[in-house]
Amino acid sequence: MKYLKFIILFIFCFFSFFANAENLNNELLNKISKNIRCLICQGQSVYDSQSDFAVSMKLVIKKKLEEGSTESQIYEYLKNQYGEWIIYDPEFNKNTFFLWLFPIFIFVVGVWLIIRKIKFYKL
Amino acid sequence: MKKKTLLIIITIFVLFCFVVLLKGLSNSNIYVPNTKIGKQLLSFKAKKLLNNEEVISDELFFENKIYLLNLWASWCVPCRTEHHILMQLSSNPSIRIIGLNYKDDLTNAKKFINQMGNPYSEIIIDKDGTISIDLGAYGIPETFIIDKNKIILKKFVGPINDQSLKEIESLLK
Amino acid sequence: MFFSQLGYYSLIFGLILSFALIPIAYKDLKIINNSINPNIFIIISLQLFTVLLSFISLIVSFINSDFSNETVYNNSHTTKPLFYKISGTWGNHEGSLLLCLLVLILFIFIFLLTSKKEPKKYQIFTLLFQQIIIVGFFLFLLLVSNPFNYLLPIPVEGLGLNPILQDPILAIHPPILYLGYIGSSIIFSSSLAAITQNYVDNKWAKNLKNWVFISWIFLTIGIMLGSIWAYYELGWGGFWFWDPVENISLMPWLCLTALIHSIIVLEKRSLLASWTLILSIASFTLSMCGTFLVRSGILNSVHTFANDPKRGIFILIFLFVLILGSLFIFFVLHKPKKEEQKNFLFSKETSILLNNWFMMYFLSVVLIGTVYPIFLEVIANEKISVGPPFYNKLLIPFLIPFFIFMTIGPNTKWIKDNFKLINLRLILLFIISIFLSYLILSKTGSRGLFTTVLIGSSLYLLFITVKDFFIKNQINLSQKISHFGFSLLILSIIVNGIFSSEVITNIKVGEKYNFKHGSIYFEKINSFKEKNYMSVVGTFKIKDRNNKEIYLKPELRIFNQPIMITSEADIKTSFYSDKFLVMNLVKGNEFYNIRYQTKPFMIWIWLSTILLVTGGLVNFLNKERK
Fold first, then answer.
1. Is the pTM of this model over 0.80?
2. Cα-trace Rg, chain C
3. Minimal C-alpha gap between C591 and chain A (Å)
4. Do A55 and B129 touch (CB under 8 A)?
5. Residues 377..396 of C with a Cβ closer than 8 Å to A: which?
6. What is the CATH classification number for the domain harbouring A69?
7. What is the pLDDT of residues A43-87, one digit of tens each?
8. What interface predicted TM-score (ipTM) does this complex get?
9. Which of A83, C8, C9, C375 could form a disulfide with C148 if both were Cys (CB 3.0 to 4.6 A apart)?
10. What are chain B's domains?
11. Is C347 helix (H, G, I), strand (E, B) or coil?
């Protein structure tokens, strides 16, 4: 009797592990497809689109996740196929230094400009 | 003095932006990524349309010819407009045209071929569209020009027209 | 035919009037008195009349489905309902430009009427600078965007029957947006005029402030309408996509918001004159840049009009003439009044500086995100996408300090305030806010320290803006309402963003789909024949965890002219949340793909924006009371 309970528990854990893994994969699938541009739509992500391209793309991503690819490996693969512009999140590389740093630069310049205008006397 | 230098710097920057934007205007807006051009075709597995046999892609590109890999489907309207050009090309002995049937109903696909003619030396199936993504395709119709070493020479997005026909013919020389 | 002629020659006449105006205005400059030569008024009125006539002619051509007019042919159809025939007038490139021109002239007309007490030369220079813009638009219209081109032979039917564009909100969203963009032209022209006249002081600020509010109010409403339309019509349940054209409307908005604040400083304390000028020039420049980016074909987006490179070149040249011209005037002619003193740390002046600093930061994020891909492509031949993840990463973290500053700033006194750094009540309130936020988040699974602080500080801001209503003075009612509206808006957006949930699945009639928070049962599907489309309506019963049932009926519309299928979501709105269901065909299948979303506080996003705008309107009422 005890054995049976053990086996049932074990089988349950086994399946719930896979169910969880599938849930995790689903979440990851959603996260990735929200970050991929649907190339034949105007301004929609693969997640939002129901076009042929988007549906096939979601299948490809799902397959790759099941094969064990990581998120960044999938992005690399897609960049190889379609170029960097298929990814909505511009990564920080030599092409995008200015993109990411310009606003920060403005922010810092702002601090300097404001400090110039303030009297820091003791109240 | 400080004001004048600032004005000059800003003016130069503004003129720079002007030139960049002017050039940007003349750039084509139809962006066809050329990331795959010059790269070798990845190996993939697919079933043949007519006899359901499974093949590995490498087996298809065995002859010393130029290959056209044409993505099509029976439900695709522009595919019909390019079909007669494909028929024309299929009579050229230095070309082989391989069809990749994309997300199609097999009966409809076979009907399409029977009605419109078969320019393909071989037709393989991409039922769920995943092979096309492995190829870096957008959708259909799309045509890849591949040489005997399986290097992708060129890609046409959209139906082949007379202009693309000329480009193909110049590649053959 | 006749109306096309009328419209065209009215435009030419209007342009001639501009040229007639310039020498008269120039002569009047030399006459030293207090009021403008009445002939100027006559000419401006006449110009307004001719352009109005031209615009009405275009409307009439649309109503009559006069397909000899190329614009009408491209954008209209005999079977279009009358309302959409009329709104089709401004829903295209040429018509919208004609509307912009009309508003340009209307606004300078109103400016002259309401600025009689302002220095005469200032008024005339404002008129002259505005006329430069007006002539630019006239030339643009007549040379490369003529709304009155002929088509021969006359086509029997028009091309413009896209059903997506036949929507009431989409009909009024552009004109209101244009009122906002063009409103900033007055700010631009009068700023340049003020520089030439050395009139950049508190009196000028007082007069200009109204125009800043007008432009800002229309722009806010315009943006809100665009988001409402996207939410109700596009079927993805979102209202903001960081699409380049959306960003283009946001940039002048950020600039104008900063300007509202800095112009108050100029009005009350005669400080920040140069900065106010920069913001004024920048607001209109950004509006014009936006026009360029959208209409030149350089950007790819859902919103872009048909591309014509000649138009792009024209707008580009026009835009840079404006920029370089105003730069020159600012740097060479502007003489700052005196050595502007420094402000005390705890003062309203500093608070407003902080506000402007953050606004400029936000503006720089949106600006660089929108234009960088263009520059990169031209310079390095690399194409990248800048999408929502970029904006979220750079904007959201900075919201937290922004909220905190906003709880302190508005109530600081001018010049110098005694700020008790350790104000026990406020700190207690802050802690309560964080705690509340923690409670709310833990209900749905914890999301970490950052989100807790984000919602907490947003809540805190909301509490403070509400508390400010109970401070007994009627002054700044406009500020209180707007700030309250803003805090509610931002809180709604954050909560909506974090707590929205959705399920996507393929489902057949008769099937039931179970998910974490409930179930969806696909009861039936019906088709009806409507006037110009086939309507397919699915009936879905949605049960939530508490067994509460609602019915949602998303619709598919199948048009045959042009062949198109549109998807109409069904949305059930309540004060607490929206339930959103949209249905799509799955190719070659009896399955339907459905997307069910729960969107908390959606309606508060719209209501709080209306509150935000109301605050701006109250500003006008306050003046009349005094």
1. yes
2. 27
3. 13
4. yes
5. 380, 382-390, 394
6. 1.10.8.640
7. 788 998 888 889 899 999 999 999 988 999 999 999 888 888 899
8. 0.86
9. C8
10. 45-172 (3.40.30.10)
11. coil
